[in-house]
Design brief:
Elements lengths: L31 E3 L12 H5 L12 E3 L6
Antiparallel strand pairs: 1-2
Length: about 70
């Protein structure tokens, strides 16, 4: 198995559980959705299977949001 380098994700949300030194996200995985789906509860049993192969198009980066956020 080849170890791929981890992508560094910078974040400005300092009250997130995964926020680390130099504003780097420490989450093992990151979930990002378009704002239209921001209210979806991915913690429900059907959440992952419903969005696993789900694809959307975002016109701008400001129309997206990180669903990995977990308050400290």
């Amino acid at each position: 198995m080849i170890n791929e380098p981890k992508t560094l994700v910078k974040c400005s949300v300092s009250n997130c559980h995964f926020w680390g030194e130099a504003n780097l996200c420490q989450a093992e995985k990151i979930v990002i959705e378009i704002d239209a789906h921001a209210g979806r509860n991915l913690n429900e049993e059907f959440g992952e299977e419903h969005f696993n192969n789900h694809q959307d198009n975002a016109r701008t980066s400001s129309s997206t949001c990180c669903l990995t956020f977990k308050p400290k």
